[in-house]
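protien #1 (seq + structre)
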Amino acid sequence: MEREEAMLSASSMYYLQDIKMETIANHLHMSRSSVSRLLRDARESGLVEITLRPTPTRGPGLAKKIEACFGIETHVVPVADLADEAERLDHVARATAKIVTGWFDSDMIMGVAWGTTLAAIARHLGKKPTRGSAIVQLNGAANVRTSGVEYAGNLIARFGEAFDAQVHLFPVPAFFDFAETRNAMWSERSIVRVLEYQRRADIALFSIGAIAGEVPSHVYSAGYLETSDIQTLDKEGIVGDVCTIFLREDGTYEDLSMNARATGPTPEELRSIPRRICGVAGDNKVVPLLAALRAGAITDLVVDEQTATKLVEHVMQLKDGAASAEEIALQTDHSEPLVSSS
């Protein structure tokens, strides 16, 4: 009877009150391993029954459609229908952190951008010691109001700590005032060293920047752009950015004036990195995400179910007289992608 009572007490505290094993052990005056055995016996005896009731999800079907359309690996994260955008972001950040931790290993280089989503991913990183690895910042962070160094530096340092990796910061502004200044800085040896690490990266990790939304992108909400810059974005039809390189909805970016002053890698430069992971959550990210996919910037997409649904719906609605290749891909199954990501 004493053991059954102990099993009941331990199980109630662990499963119903969400109390940690160490606390339960102290309360019952026993070791943590004894509590673990009580919980095991409670399950085996039928005192505790664990039932999984997965909620219906469209994730696998959505992932298959996006993969067929754009030729990328897609991980659709199930979230509750009533989840707000902050919750959706947290779920995507957790999933992305887990995936990145599994992929990154010794003697590898990972390029990391900064922003709201990347900060969330950094908070969910687990510890995975590696040897001979490096983390390199992909785009500058300083602006006219703050140095940006502390914000980006802390974020990149969190990745370095998680993997015991060497950290290489990128000590330049997010945007130069003049394209000529940027071009001159790209000849400086200290900058060339960081750019070389970026080019040698095995993995690039970034998100999508959106101009507005419930959870605004850091580049648009933290003083990186002047009023005149925002007006230029609107005039040139820009819908968002990847690593502070601005994109139109059709994925073009080469002739945009703001990009001549930006410090992040272009989609073309990103394509030299074998694995390019993008974590995305939020309705406001749908259009810029499509732009990034069309630009071929992404090889692996981690996206919440609602955003994935809206992406598919948006592509289906883009009718210009006849169905586009993207629309056809979303309506049929293909063994080969119609839109290449490289």
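ok now protien #2
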Amino acid sequence: MILTVTPNPSLDRTYEVPALGRGEVLRATGDRMDPGGKGVNVSRAVAAAGHRSVAVLPLGGAPGALVAELLAAEGIVVAPVPVAGDTRSNISIAEPDGTLTKINAAGPELTAAESELLLSAIRTHSTAADWIACCGSLPPGLAPEWYAELVARAHGAGVRIALDTSGPSLLAALRERPDVVKPNADELAQAVGRPLATIGDAVKAAQELRESGAAAVLASLGADGQLLVSDSGTYFAWAPVETVRSNVGAGDASLAGFLAAGGTGPDALRSAVAHGAAAVQLPGSVMPTPQDLDLAAVIVTAEVPLDRVLTEQGSPR
């Protein structure tokens, strides 16, 4: 069972448009509504793959009630923590060439009491968990050290923990030695404070995160593939993608695939890339099922092409 923690969940609305024109009236060719937030997407991908997932998240108001309803409909066990503020609503606009424009709200401010209730709910439900996946930004009211405290508590309970966040929250959590961290190229560049132009640059940055405390680094490099840097070695993997329809939640699907496959080694990396490649070919934040996956198409190698220039170079913004 994979337990997910989403401190700042959302209700996500995705619109597909022929082209995005600033100041124009746009006619959507398709739209959908999904429960959102990085941890929520991990739970959805785990459930779509046929595994059990429990989603711990603060929920408030009508948007929060709808998020819980949508998650339950996907077979996910929802462990809501009631909060006074309304759950945020986000908007994504997807164009045919794969370009995605997102508008994300800040989310409700959590009180100290609500923060403690969230930690208590995680402790209660983590006893049966094989992994805890903590994902996304922290809402107003939670200090950057909140994830660090969560990692420490998880390890105290003997549970492995994967962390997908960025900035001060990531750096603060490294001291508690999370089992896996999953940055993208920009987040990796931000963590080391310099741009990343090649896959070799990304490998060096991942090694620095390991030196700072991460047991393993699963780095998403967009269309260029993914890296895994851990005690078992350094591996690079990629898969061909015919058409990118939406990259919303693709990184979260990758993390779900990695953890569902054991969370260690090249086989888990292969699963991560297969899940991510399948996700970008689906609309909105739809998560891939086993029928969508093509594990045979994924190439995994320990001969990392260090000099290859990244298509989407990491920038420490």
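The mean pLDDT is 93.
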